[in-house]
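Worked problem 6 (solution included).
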Amino acid sequence: MDNNNNLEFVSDLRTVVGRLIKKLRKESKTGQQLSLTERSTLSLLLQNKEMLPSELAAIEKITNQSMSGILSHLLELGYIVRTASDTDKRKVNISLSAAGEKIMLQVRNERDEWLTKAITGTCTKEEQELLKKAIGTLTKIVEFE
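Solution. The predicted structure is:
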């Protein structure tokens, strides 16, 4: 692939992935009530059970101060719980509350329902298989530093 075709391919991929992300955000009425970083933070907590605020900030690539504001808002909404660390009382572990877990599962379900309808309504079985195979490749790209 020559450089011009490669640049066009990269641009097309970036554009379509960005549009898919925007579309998925719109398809969850529940998720629209939260900022992108708030949703991402709750998602990390759903995956990891509990984390330190500094760990969340590092993964989100924001300052500890910005993460503190996000966590304060999520605490006000009742979506997270702060618990003193068993090993170091100066540290606070953050985890999802029952309400936080419920809202994240609802957001996931709303998005998954829409994406399932979109895929089955527009893609052939062969195209669906191609999408399944592309997941591994896309995951490698996302994890690239």
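Discussion: Strands lie at 50-51, 80-84, 92-96.
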